[in-house]
Design brief:
This protein is mostly helical and 125 residues long. It has a single domain, classed as Up-down Bundle (Four Helix Bundle (Hemerythrin (Met), subunit A)), CATH 1.20.120. Helices cover 68% and strands 0% of the residues. It is built from six helices and no strands. It has helices spanning 7-26, 31-52, 63-73, 81-89, 91-95, 104-121. Helix 4 (81-89) crosses helix 6. The chain starts with 6 loop residues before the first helix and ends with a helix. The model has no long low-confidence stretch (mean pLDDT 93).
Length: 125
């Protein structure tokens, strides 16, 4: 088993969530579960990038805090604040599922943020 303190580990496990998002989108999965896996993928990518910068990670799920840590050690990643905040907004609904309150416009909003963040960060991991 690969150590969880390497960037490659976090990149590898983020691809599980990325693949799951793609499958669920294709198959019209439940919106809350799709957004949950979007959040998980970005969380894991952020943790991998933090480790790649030589920093220790916090085992938290707050995308805003993880992103702030990453930007504090490498300003190259600045510019995604709005997208990170938008995806983080859904987290309380994901932890305490109330999927009936999420609709297609929520999915579109989360997907826009997710895709922007993913395209900006993934290749650096």
């Amino acid at each position: 088993m690969q150590s969880d303190n390497t960037p490659q580990y976090w990149k590898n496990i983020s691809t599980h969530d990325i693949d799951t998002v793609e499958l669920l989108l294709r198959d019209n999965g439940h919106i809350d579960i799709i957004i949950y896996h979007m959040h998980q993928a970005i969380e894991k990518i952020l943790k991998g990038l933090i480790i790649a910068q030589g920093e220790d990670i916090l085992f938290i799920h707050d995308l805003k805090r993880l992103y702030a840590i990453l930007c504090s050690v490498n300003q190259k990643f600045i510019g995604l604040e709005e997208k990170i905040i938008n995806l983080q907004i859904f987290y309380k609904d994901l932890r305490y599922p109330i999927s009936d309150s999420l609709d297609d416009s929520d999915l579109d909003s989360a997907k826009d943020s997710y895709e922007s963040i993913l395209s900006f960060l993934f290749e650096d991991l």
